[in-house]
Amino acid sequence: MFALINFSYLAAAVCFILGIKGMTRPSTAVRGNQIAAVGMLIAVVAALLHQQIVSYPTIIAGMLVGGTIGVWLAKRIAMTQMPELVASLNGIGGAASVTVAASTWLIALTADNLGTTGWAVAILVSIVIGSVTLAGSLVAVLKLHGSIGDSAKNRTWQLVALTTLVAVIVGGGLFVNGTGAQPLVLAALVGLCLLMGVALVQPIGGADMPVVVALLNAYSGLAGAATGFVLDNQGLIITGSLVGASGLILTAVMCKAMNRSLPNVLFGGVFGQAGSGSQARDEGDFYAGKVKYATADELALLLDSARKVVMVPGYGLAVAQAQHAVKELASQLESRGASVSYAIHPVAGRMPGHMNVLLAEAEIPYHQLKDMDAINPELPQADVAIVLGANDVVNPAAAEEPSSPIYGMPILDVHKARTVVVVKRSLSPGFAGIPNSLFIKDNSLMVKGDAKDVLQATTRAMKDL
Amino acid sequence: MEMFVLSFTIFILALFVGVELINKVPPTLHTPLMSGTNAISGIVVVGAIISAGSAGVSPTVAAVLGFVAVTLASINIVAGFLVTDRMLNMFKRKV
């Protein structure tokens, strides 16, 4: 029986690997996800067969409650809120690892059957990574949601993080060597790690949340792998490391797209803040009289003669829920024989692939979505590039001004298009907190307003032409 | 200790498999990839089930924690797979 159960876990892990393999192509991805779900079912059934289990009501109750909440979340969430959902699920995954480790340890303590030092280390690692993931994700969700802004007390938070880290190392040492193997010590460790999670994420700016979400995704996987060590369950270890690897790769992709190192994103908050304060004051001078404004009607006239149009979506598109309005305008343009493509910067939006999901929701064919390397050589031939709520990722300063804080960050070269139209609610700076020299270029026009309203007005105006 | 060495070997090898596999996922699918990995990280439900089910021989705190663990892991599994499916179907619609 024991062997059968363990083989089932292996089968589940193989299903997960095949599932992720399916995700390498949009056409096979749905099937991949289903294979992974089947793997999960196998694992759950195998777990229920464990001979250690004496009662089922608690298990069934938990599954019903969790399942209902899960269905409710998955049905009701808007595509624009995906970053918040993924961040929440990261946190819940971390919390699950903590509770499993704590519960397993308490059961072993009561049975007077505490394992080896290695086992205690695995418990400790589950608790530490899981709690940090939980608290960090909570802060990330609130920041993504806009409920909390960026803190001005970054140094204080970093001091808190350092202090709690020392305390966790001391407490963890006592816990592992047996002298501190008491429920109270465990509870204190959880508390300290939660505080550490908050202190680690709080100083990181809202613009860097995509990196944090990807990293916490990796942590939630590693917490799961640690739980695998606690339970001596290799299926869990394999799955946890798959998720960990996924999160780490996405973290690396995002860092590369911002031309920053991971330590700079995680601990560079202090310096970033000092820079933005001084620049904010120069902003009025920077733009004074140099920005040319246009209306939606003028934009419609401009588009009427355009053959090649490139849309550049950013976070503003998600905020305005303008994905369907983009599609409408694009259909209008296409019916007039223009070609429309979409330029997607790797860090556009608030998480990897965020823009792609929104545009897919509006039924925009994904072969029209071009990533940065594919679209940049085409942009000089574009008649019109429409920037929809993107800012820092189209700032030419990143390529032209070595003094700029974002210098070196790869950008979409929209300023090379014949005309650039920026649809934006105000001249406020992007998350990097710096003015955008794109807005004062000779070939750029600004249409002030909410992306959705502007796009709809433009589509109407085009129909009337 | 031998068990640990074995487990650790598997852990490292699986990390490499993960890196190779996930490098092939196109950026377009990165958001569904994240929610999908959220779902499969719900595999800790296995540990949760065992803790919650052994509650008969353990203190109340452990039983409560076991229940919480099953609930949390189930949220991840159900919400993760369903929302990933919802997203991926959008990609499938127009090929």
Structure description:
Chain A: This is NAD(P) transhydrogenase subunit beta. Chain A: GO terms for molecular function: NADP binding; proton-translocating NAD(P)+ transhydrogenase activity. Chain A: One of its GO terms (cellular component) is plasma membrane. The complex is a heterodimer of chains A (465) and B (95). Chain A has helices at 2-22, 26-48, 57-76, 82-110, 117-145, 154-177, 183-201, 209-231, 234-257, 262-267, 269-287, 296-304, 315-320, 323-335, 354-361, 372-375, 397-400, 451-464, and strands at 308-313, 339-344, 369-371, 384-388, 419-424, 444-448. With 465 residues, chain A is α/β, with parallel strands linked by helices. Chain A has 3 domains: 1-76; 82-267, no CATH class; 280-464, 3-Layer(aba) Sandwich (Rossmann fold), CATH 3.40.50. Chain A has a 6-stranded parallel beta sheet with strand order 3-2-1-4-5-6. Chain A is elongated. The termini of chain A are far apart. Mean pLDDT of chain A is 87; it is low at 270-281. In chain B, helix 2 (30-40) runs antiparallel to helix 4 and helix 3 runs antiparallel to helix 4 (60-93). Chain B has helices at 2-22, 30-40, 45-53, 60-93. The mean pLDDT of chain B is 88. By secondary structure, chain B is an all-alpha fold. Chain B has one domain. The longest helix of chain B has 34 residues, at 60-93. Chains A and B meet through helix 1, helix 2, helix 3, helix 4 and helix 8 of A and helix 1, helix 2, helix 3 and helix 4 of B.
Give a nutshell description of this structure.
The complex is a heterodimer of chains A (465) and B (95). By secondary structure, chain A is an alpha/beta fold.
Strand order of the largest sheet of chain A: 3-2-1-4-5-6
Question: Total strand count of chain B, please?
Answer: 0
**Strand content bin of chain B:** under 5%
Principal-axes geometry of chain B comes out as flat
Number of helices of chain B: 4
Low-confidence stretches of chain A: 270-281
N-C termini distance of chain B: 52 Å
Radius of gyration of chain A: 25 Å
The helix content of chain B is: over 70%
Order of helices and strands of chain B: HHHH
Percent of residues in β-strands of chain A: 5-15%
- Mean pLDDT over all positions of chain A: 87
Structural class of chain B: mainly alpha
The major beta sheet of chain B can be summarized as:
none
Coarse morphology of chain A: elongated
Which residue ranges of chain B are poorly predicted, with pLDDT under 50 across at least 5 consecutive positions? none
Largest β-sheet summary of chain A: 6 strands, parallel
Q: How many E strands of chain A?
A: 6
